[in-house]
Amino acid sequence: MSQYKSQVQNQFLSQARKKHMKVEVILETGTVLRGKLQAYDQFSISLSFKDKVEIVYKSSIIYISALPLLRPPMGDRRPYNRSAAPPRGRRPDTDAPLPEKRPLPNLDDDFEDPPPPKKAPVKRY
After folding, report:
1. What pTM, to 2 d.p., does this model score?
2. Which of 1, 49, 61, 103 would be a feasible disulfide site paired with 113, CB 3.0-4.6 Å?
3. Which range, 21-35, 65-79, 97-111, has the best average confidence (pLDDT)?
4. What mean pLDDT comes out for the span 87-103?
5. Phi and psi (nearest 5°) for 48?
6. Nearest one of 65, 4, 9 to 42, comparing CA atoms
7. Phi and psi dihedrals of 73, rounded to 5?
8. What is the pLDDT of residues 78-88, one digit of tens each?
9. CA atoms within 13 A on the CB side of 23
């Protein structure tokens, strides 16, 4: 059974690493880490955000989720075939122009990763 779980985990981590996806990692302490998955092994994962790389033990992770892509990379865009789609926003017999299309904002630049977690003070008894 553990072999199956490991296989699913490895498939997810492999896809996230190969596609350079941003992931969100929730730790047992409640800390949320966001960044790109750089590498992983049996016991840990390596996340990078801005110019920093952080290694997190898998035993301290509650869950990992892939953050949605807001828009595809420039190389993956395919031209839209207007002749295949029906006209939107107006009736075919009207000559009213469609509203002007505005470009999508580049939200990748506005995305700011959270700082690394602060170390909790060690309690000595």
Report:
1. 0.51
2. 49
3. 21-35
4. 63
5. -120, 140
6. 9
7. -60, 160
8. 555 555 555 55
9. 25
User: Tokens 């029906």, residue?
Assistant: 86
Rounded to an integer, the average pLDDT of 22-27 is 92
What percentage of the chain exceeds 90 in pLDDT? 35
- Three-state SS annotation for the chain: CHHHHHHHHHHHHHHHHHCCCEEEEEECCCCEEEEEEEEECCCEEEEEECCEEEEEEHHHEEEEEECCCCCCCHHHCCCCCHHHCCCCCCCCCCCCCCCCCCCCCCHHHHCCCCCCCCCCCCCCC
Beta bridge partners, 108, equal: none
CA nearest to 117, candidates 2, 32, 4? 32
CATH architecture label of 1-69: Roll (2.30)
Q: Are 87 and 96 in contact (CB under 8 A)?
A: no
Domain range annotation of the chain: 1-69
**In angstroms, rounded to a whole number, what is the distance separating the alpha carbons of residues 83 and 67?**
33
Cα–Cα dist 94/50, whole Å: 51
